[in-house]
């Protein structure tokens, strides 16, 4: 049966067009109940005896998704009209709902009410789309009641007063979410409910924790129409808000329209914006702009800084000394930086936050409800007001809270409890917090994903060996070089001396795409995760362990499938020819970096593997020098390595990660393979190749590095990557650590390298600044990165091995994929750093330590130091009584009598100790040991 439905839709140009949709109605769409006597129950997903069977409307899904995700809520019918409406209104919640519906352990069933003969509803004259959808929900609920014949109680959940009234009039059982949850007898579930505005707590009941005669008032956000107009006219500026990690009352908005960062001082000027929000900013009058040196490092006692002063008030700015004194003794103003205030939110970045609760000093509300303030572990997030019925049980727990709204009259945003993670301070609890805060998917792989794997034990088959697309390279002496204990080995090498005096050099990469096929649950899951995540004591895999540690891992003495890049090179590392092939290899040795380095250094060893290692290392050194000569940067980072107790998993020792020649050798050939593959896939697919670019840093980005270098007598040429590389090579002082510190600072001025689709940009924009390479991609780690899986498919298609998947024809989807890869890659980096910070706290908890540090940034009430021995960075606050002044030109902070000063890159002695100035917020406090390292003029 065919039904037509028409409606009008407004176009982007402001016109109106008529949309006609045809509905094919059927009577064989099943209800999903296993006890139904009419339907085919083979695909039934609901319980045998649900009590009751729930039907939810759209607003319940949009507002109560945290409640629906709780295991206590089950046997839910999700109507197709609801699914579509949620998809139109909030894609994030839609994805969470789809995940619930596809989860085999949850009883959520999607019913296609829009295509069922008995539940389809026609449009009525004068009826709004919202009213039509509400009517469709009621009709489907009534159908379930009649269809199941009273065998189960069918209940419509709706917080829409009018929808509930009409349902009851039509003989349908309907309740509000709160009423239903109360009937379950689990009071803690009530904390998950998002209260509608009419049920909001009165502001005067939960006002400021401190006595205050002033009302806390924010400015209303501008409507989107006004924001759009203001952006077009240059009145407003758009960008992402980034809150200072050391001071939550200061933020930055990178603005392309003015080519600089706009600094936002104080919560009033932030105007209820969260870190990561895309905001519209209005510049303040220029006489209210401030210099960078006025950015203060806050102490914990500043946490409750006044945020309700008018934007023009100087009191709203950080409490800092703004006077800059030059070498002549004259007072000068610091260079002004654009300063502004947020006037609107273009895109919210609200998500779930992890932290703890503190009680508010007020009597309990009705029904055992008390008000509490949630304190996020991330200091950039403001406190969040919640209601709870289980405060006593939560005081020693890490919990998850979601934000619901932030009213203009409220000092704090309002939110609701989502779930408890575990006891505060427990390592597993705190590690889960790290993963949740960085949106890392760490749940076990589903049965559908695991069903995609080949059965174990797996081995190379005779069919694999006979396949004409796959070359048998088992005769080659292949070996791998990886970090110690590595099990997910996805790259191996070989180097064979040729009679001509040249070398055949091969990079062999695990053939992951032989097992991960497009469109499968395994591929979908890998695409969503984007990358493996490496924490201090564990690894969160992108692919299941049977693949990463067995089937695809290029372990020693086992045959494995690979995708190989093979060059013929001269002894001067000039590439004569390049070929690509699927292959079968058998690794002869799986070495660690330490083992490979020891072999190369031991002149007594002359075995074939050691000889090949030395030949490869000699070629790698030449290749590296050629890259540097082209302008590639040799930067440095503060990578930390922990020695972990195998039983307790506690850190036993901490230090900087050591880079050896063996590391650099492997890196050089991986870079070469990635560049060769990038050229191959771009030649064949100029519109859809997945590449990786590193944007050239702007002059503004490099300014802090130039200023720091100048303060210590160095002149850096930043006109090109080659000029900067040469300048960094010349930046040598008497201190052996000086050059590395300059390179670390240079690294921090760089933008992030990103994935992109070749069809989106012009060829000059493909450039990778750090590598000085016109083309680059990622091919060498498909076990750990989904980008490499994507590139393997492109390379196979370019060789005629496989057909190019359909996704490569969809530019919008390719953009979404590259955006997700960039998002996941950055989150993985942040999670790794947070894991290091967590284990640093654990290590120093009972180990107060005195050590040397280097000053890397000067601020108006202290400085930020880097601790070389431990790879740690943090703020050091100076006493308020010191009368400190900042000398912008000389990059130093000094006492007003000029008796003492501290300069950038100077060595100071500090004391490191874990303290807890606020409950449940431990931090590593760095304190200056003044008597030892004060520099006197």
From TrEMBL:
Its cofactor is Mg(2+). It is found in: Nucleus. Residues 322-334 have a biased composition (Polar residues). Residues 299-340 are annotated as: Disordered. The keyword Transferase does not apply. Residues 52-165 form the PIN domain. Residues 470-801 form the RNB domain. InterPro entries: Dis3_CSD2 (IPR041505), NA-bd_OB-fold (IPR012340), PIN-like_dom_sf (IPR029060), PIN_dom (IPR002716), RNase_II/R (IPR001900), RNase_II/R_CS (IPR022966), RNR_Ribonuclease (IPR050180), Rrp44_CSD1 (IPR033771). Keywords: Exonuclease, Exosome, Hydrolase, Magnesium, Nuclease, Nucleus, RNA-binding, rRNA processing. The keyword Signal does not apply. Belongs to the RNR ribonuclease family. PANTHER family: EXOSOME COMPLEX EXONUCLEASE RRP44, RIBONUCLEASE. This is OLC1v1010476C1. It comes from Oldenlandia corymbosa var. corymbosa.
């Amino acid at each position: 049966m065919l039904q037509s439905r028409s409606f009008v839709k407004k176009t982007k140009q402001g016109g109106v067009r008529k949309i006609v949709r045809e509905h094919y109605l059927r009577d064989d769409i099943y209800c999903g109940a296993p006890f139904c006597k009419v339907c085919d129950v083979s695909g039934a997903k609901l319980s045998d005896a649900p009590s009751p069977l729930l039907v939810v409307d759209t607003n319940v899904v949009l507002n109560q998704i945290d409640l629906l995700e709780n295991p206590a809520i089950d046997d839910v019918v999700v109507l197709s009209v609801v699914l579509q409406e949620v998809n139109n209104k909030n894609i994030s919640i839609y994805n969470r709902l789809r995940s619930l519906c596809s989860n085999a352990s949850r009883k959520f069933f999607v019913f296609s009410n829009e295509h069922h003969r008995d539940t389809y509803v026609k449009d009525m004259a004068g009826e709004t789309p919202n009213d039509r959808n509400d009517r469709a929900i009621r009709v489907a609920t009534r159908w379930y009641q009649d269809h199941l014949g009273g065998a189960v109680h069918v209940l419509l959940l709706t917080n829409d007063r009018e929808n509930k009234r009409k349902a009851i009039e039509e003989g349908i059982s309907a309740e509000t979410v709160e009423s239903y949850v109360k009937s379950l007898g689990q009071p803690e579930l009530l904390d998950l409910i998002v209260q509608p505005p009419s049920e909001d707590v009165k502001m005067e009941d939960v006002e400021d924790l401190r006595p205050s005669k002033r009302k806390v008032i924010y400015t209303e956000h501008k409507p989107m129409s006004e924001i759009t107009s203001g952006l077009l006219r240059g009145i407003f500026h758009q960008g992402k808000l980034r809150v200072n990690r050391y001071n939550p009352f200061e933020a930055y908005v990178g603005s392309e329209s003015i080519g600089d960062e706009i600094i936002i001082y104080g919560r009033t000027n932030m105007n209820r914006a969260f870190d990561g929000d895309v905001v519209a900013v209005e510049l303040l009058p220029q006489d209210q702009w401030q210099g960078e040196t006025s950015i203060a490092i806050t102490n914990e006692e500043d946490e409750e800084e006044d945020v309700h002063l008018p934007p023009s008030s100087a009191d709203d700015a950080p409490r800092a000394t703004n006077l800059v004194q030059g070498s002549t003794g004259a007072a000068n103003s610091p260079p002004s930086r654009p300063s502004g205030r947020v006037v609107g939110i273009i895109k919210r970045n609200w998500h779930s936050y992890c932290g703890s609760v503190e009680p508010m000093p007020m009597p309990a509300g009705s029904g055992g409800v008390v008000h509490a303030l949630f304190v996020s572990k991330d200091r950039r997030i403001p406190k969040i007001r919640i209601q709870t019925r289980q405060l006593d049980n939560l005081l020693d727990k890490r919990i998850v809270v979601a934000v619901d709204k932030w009213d203009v009259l409220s000092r704090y945003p309002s939110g609701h409890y989502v779930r408890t993670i575990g006891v505060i301070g427990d390592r597993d609890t705190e590690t889960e917090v790290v993963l949740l805060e960085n949106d890392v998917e760490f749940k076990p792989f589903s049965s559908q994903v695991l069903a995609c794997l080949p059965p174990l034990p797996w081995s190379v088959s005779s069919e694999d060996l006979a396949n004409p697309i796959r070359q048998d390279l088992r005769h080659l002496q292949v070996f791998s070089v990886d970090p110690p204990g590595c099990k997910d080995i996805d790259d191996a090498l070989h180097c064979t001396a040729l009679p001509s005096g040249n070398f055949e050099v091969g990079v062999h990469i695990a053939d992951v795409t032989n097992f991960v096929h497009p469109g499968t649950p395994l591929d979908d899951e890998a695409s969503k995760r984007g990358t493996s995540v490496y924490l201090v004591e564990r690894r969160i895999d992108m692919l299941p362990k049977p693949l990463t540690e067995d089937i695809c891992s290029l372990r020693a003495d086992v045959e494995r499938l690979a995708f190989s890049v093979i060059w013929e090179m001269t002894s001067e590392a000039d590439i004569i020819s390049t070929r690509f092939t699927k292959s079968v290899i058998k690794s002869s040795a799986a070495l660690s970096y330490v083992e490979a380095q020891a072999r190369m250094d031991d002149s007594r060893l002359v075995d074939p593997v050691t000889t090949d290692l030395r030949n490869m290392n000699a070629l790698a050194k030449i290749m590296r020098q050629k890259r540097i000569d082209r302008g590639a940067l040799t930067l440095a980072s503060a990578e930390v390595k922990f020695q972990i107790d195998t039983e307790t998993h506690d850190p036993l020792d901490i230090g900087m990660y050591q880079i050896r020649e063996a590391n650099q050798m492997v890196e050089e050939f991986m870079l070469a393979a990635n560049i060769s593959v990038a050229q191959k896939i771009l030649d064949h697919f100029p519109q859809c190749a997945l590449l990786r670019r590193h944007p050239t840093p702007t002059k503004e980005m490099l300014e802090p590095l130039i200023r720091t270098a100048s303060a210590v007598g160095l002149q850096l040429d930043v006109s090109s990557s080659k000029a900067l590389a040469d300048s960094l090579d010349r930046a040598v002082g008497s201190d052996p650590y000086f050059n590395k510190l300059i390179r670390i600072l240079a690294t921090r001025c760089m933008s992030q390298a990103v994935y992109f689709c070749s069809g989106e940009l012009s060829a000059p924009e493909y450039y990778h600044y750090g590598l000085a390479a016109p083309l680059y991609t990622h091919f060498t780690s498909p076990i750990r990165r989904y980008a490499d899986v994507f590139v393997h498919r492109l390379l196979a298609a370019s060789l005629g091995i496989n057909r190019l998947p359909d996704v490569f024809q969809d530019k919008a989807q390719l953009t979404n994929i590259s955006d997700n890869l960039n998002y996941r890659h950055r989150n993985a980096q942040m999670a790794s750093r947070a894991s290091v910070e967590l284990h640093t706290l654990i290590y120093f908890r009972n180990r107060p330590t005195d050590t040397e540090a280097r000053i890397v940034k000067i601020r108006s009430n202290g400085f930020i130091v880097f601790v070389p021995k431990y790879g740690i960075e943090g703020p050091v606050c100076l006493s308020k009584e010191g009368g400190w002044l900042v000398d912008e030109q000389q990059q130093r902070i000094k006492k007003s009598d000029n008796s003492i000063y501290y300069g950038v890159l100077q060595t100071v002695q500090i004391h490191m100790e874990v303290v807890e100035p606020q409950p449940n917020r431990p931090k590593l406090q760095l304190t200056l040991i003044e008597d030892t390292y004060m520099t006197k003029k």
